[in-house]
Amino acid sequence: xxxxxxxxxxxxxxxxxxxxxxxxxxxxxxxxxxxxxxxxxxxxxxxxxxxxxxxxxxxxxxxxxxxxxxxxxxxxxxxxxxxxxxxxxxxxxxxxxxxxxxxxxxxxxxxxxxxxxxxxxxxxxxxxxxxxxxxxxxxxxxxxxxxxxxxxxxxxxxxxxxxxxxxxxxxxxxxxxxxxxxxxxxxxxxxxxxxxxxxxxxxxxxxxxxxxxxxxxxxxxxxxxxxxxxxxxxxxxxxxxxxxxxxxxxxxxxxxxxxxxxxxxxxxxxxxxxxxxxxxxxxxxxxxxxxxxxxxxxxxxxxxxxxxxxxxxxxxxxxxxxxxxxxxxxxxxxxxxxxxxxxxxxxxxxxxxxxxxxxxxxxxxxxxxxxxxxxxxxxxxxxxxxxxxxxxxxxxxxxxxxxxxxxxxxxxxxxxxxxxxxxxxxxxxxxxxxxxxxxxxxxxxxxxxxxxxxxxxxxxxxxxxxxxxxxxxxxxxxxxxxxxxxxxxxxxxxxxxxxxxxxx
Length: 504
Prior knowledge:
The protein is α+β, with helices and mostly antiparallel strands. It has 2 domains: 11-182 and 189-196, Transposase IS200-like (Alpha-Beta Plaits), CATH 3.30.70.1290; 199-498, Coproporphyrinogen III oxidase, aerobic (oxygen-dependent coproporphyrinogen oxidase), CATH 3.40.1500.10. The protein is 39% helix and 21% strand. A hairpin with a 6-residue loop joins β8 (285-297) and β9 (304-315). α7 (204-228) packs parallel to α11. It is elongated.
C-alpha cells in the first residue's frame, strides 16, 4: 500500500494496531506512558487535535508543523521508544506494531469532523467517559498532563463546544457496522453523523467567512500586542445555549490601550420573535458570524477605533437559505483632531473600496456619517470611515464579490489605524485633556446603548453580555451641560462632528 507523505500544514489521521492484532497496551499505565512519549516526541513538530488509545490500537488526529523528514523521524522515535519499554516490561522481543503506521490526509472540513467523531466514538461502550480519549478534555477545556491538545480549529468547525457535543452524540454506534474495533478501516459513509443544524451542508460561504475572521482576529491581536508593548490579550471562549459561541479577546491596562476587545462569534438557531418581527418573517432560523473590535487608548491624543465585519443567513423550515448578506465597516473617534490622521484613515478606506468599485467609498463614507450619529446630541460619534450593510447578491455583485470586498476592508484595518497610534502614543497630555476624553467617551457609550444595531441584536438574541459590552470604556464622565471653550481645540472637534467633512 502506498503511504501518504506527511506534509507541513496538513492534517492527518494517524493510526495503527499491534502486530497480528496483539495488545499494545496492557494497563492504564502503558497508555499514560504512550501519551507522555507522544507529547515529548511530537512537541512543536505536530499539533494534536484528537486521540484515542484502545488496548490493541491507537488513533491520532494531527497537523504537521515541520518538514516531512522531521515528522517521520519524530514518529519513528516515538514508536521505537515505546516498543522498547513495552517489550522490556513484558519480557518479549520483536516488533510491537504492524509495519508502517497508517496515515490518511484530511482533504476537507467535513472529513475532519467525521474523523474526530469516529476517533472519540471508537470505544463503543461508554465512550463519553472513556479515560484515554481526548473527548472529555474538550468538555473540561483543558489538556491531559502528558500532552497539549490543540482545540482551536476543531471548535471553529463545530461552532464551538455545544455543537461539538451535539454532533458527537448524533453519531450512532450502529452506523459503525462494517468497522472493526481496530485501526486500519475507514469509511466516508457515516450516516449517523449529524450536524446541529441541517442548513450547514454545502454552505461554503458561511464556513469560508467564519474561517477568515478567526485568522483576522489572530493577525490583529498579535499586531496590537506589539504596538502596546506591555499588555497581552486575555482569551475567553464561550458557548451560547441556543447554538454557537465565540472567542473573546480583551486587553486592559496596557502601555497604550486602556481597554480594548477583538471578538469573534458564530451563533445560530431559531430567530427570536423580536427579530422575526423586525425582518418581517415567521419561524425562521438564522446564522450570524462576525468580528467586532473596539480600542480605547489611554492617551487622549490617540483616537478610539471601532470595526466590524459580519455575515448573516436566514433559513426556511427546510433549512434552505432564503436570505444572506454581508455588513461591516470601520470608523475613527478622535478626542483631538489631527487632520493628517483623518486623511490617512479615510484614504486607506478609499483605497480598499476602489479595488472593487469606485462608487463604494463615497457611498459607504456617507452612510457611516449618517449611521454613527447621536441624533439626540445632533453630532457624529466620530469622524467616520465606512459603513455598509445588507450587501446581497445582485447582477453586478455576487456573494463571492461581496466576500472579496469585505475581506479587503478587513485586511486594511491595521494599515488604517496602527500608523496613527504609533505617531500619537507618546504625545504629552494634561489632566483637563484627559477629562475631555472621558466626557467624549460618554457620548460613545450613549450611541452604543441607544442606537447601535449590533449591540441591540446581540442583546435580543441572548448574546454574551460581557462580549457585547466590552466596547464600553473603563473611565467615563457625564458633566452637566459641558460646553468647550470658544476657539479651543475641543470646540474645533465639535464643529467637525456637527458638520461632517470630506477628508479626501
